[in-house]
From TrEMBL:
Any GO molecular function: transferase activity
Superkingdom of this protein's organism: Bacteria
Residue ranges of domain Aminoglycoside phosphotransferase in the record: 38-201
Protein species of origin: Streptomyces nodosus
Keywords in alphabetical order: Transferase
Pfam families linked: APH
Spans traversing the lipid bilayer: none
Protein name as it appears in the record: Aminoglycoside phosphotransferase
Length: 245
């Protein structure tokens, strides 16, 4: 019998791997609905849905290996990073999914509230929060919505021989800002941003990318710490915030 491996486990979601099958157990069925529909609509390689019996979704493993890991140097080639950029562009050029993404006003309110909690609870130094809140302002502007993955972490993009073999974890997909996807992919891996942009095939506003790096990190630090992850580890979210000082 194949070994059962816990990939991620917290109060909202648990993912198990048994051989080449991933079992995702999610308390929020709407989130799973989005994931299944987004994978069906996305014009890029995605995992095959094997079966679904709420609250469990079974998907097949994709070939290849992740582009990298936050906090660790990526061993992927510049060509692989460029291929990721090209895949993202293909997604962004696709028709919009039928469900909306996050509203700009809601995002700004969440950011203000989170910054206040980070300072009040002494999670981060006030000057670090204040500086990154100013940087994040660049991302808080109107954008033309595109089909976004919504959580395009480096561990969610798989490559083999410099080709994209699969993009996983689509539960945050929706209509959103194209530069958000590019920023999340390169969070903590700024040195690969030029390769991603080259593959994406168009100029981007670097100030907005920097804004999304700060915004995402500010919103994530406390949640990660409360769910068993370490945003203070070298190269992770707190280091991303410090790099903006």
């Amino acid at each position: 019998m194949d070994e059962v491996k816990v990939v991620v486990a917290h109060s909202e979601r648990t993912t198990l791997r048994v051989g080449d099958v991933f079992l995702k157990v999610d308390a929020d069925q709407a989130r799973i609905d989005v994931e299944v529909e987004a994978m069906a609509l996305a014009p890029v390689p995605t995992p095959k849905v094997l079966w679904r019996k709420p609250p469990v979704l079974a998907i097949a493993a994709v070939p290849g290996k992740a582009l990298g890991e936050l906090g660790e140097p990526s061993t992927a080639s510049p060509a692989a990073w460029a291929a990721a950029g090209a895949a993202i562009r293909k997604l962004h050029d696709a028709p919009l999914p039928p469900w909306p993404g996050r509203r700009l006003d809601d995002l700004a309110a969440d950011l203000d509230g989170e910054c206040e909690r980070l300072v009040t609870n002494a999670v981060l130094p006030a000057d670090l929060v204040t500086r990154n809140r100013r940087v994040a302002e660049a991302a808080l502007r109107p954008w033309t919505p595109v089909f976004t993955h919504g959580d395009l972490q480096i561990t969610h993009v798989f490559v083999d021989d410099d080709e994209i073999t699969g993009i996983i974890d689509w539960s945050d997909a929706g209509q959103g800002d194209a530069l958000f996807d590019l920023a999340i992919l390169t969070l903590g891996h700024e040195e690969h941003l030029d390769d991603v942009i080259a593959g994406y095939g168009t100029d981007v506003d670097l100030e907005v990318i920097h804004g999304w790096w700060s915004l995402r990190s500010l919103l994530a630090v406390r949640w990660l710490a409360e769910h068993g992850f370490d945003p203070f580890a070298p190269g992770c979210e707190v280091d991303v915030l410090r790099s903006r000082m």
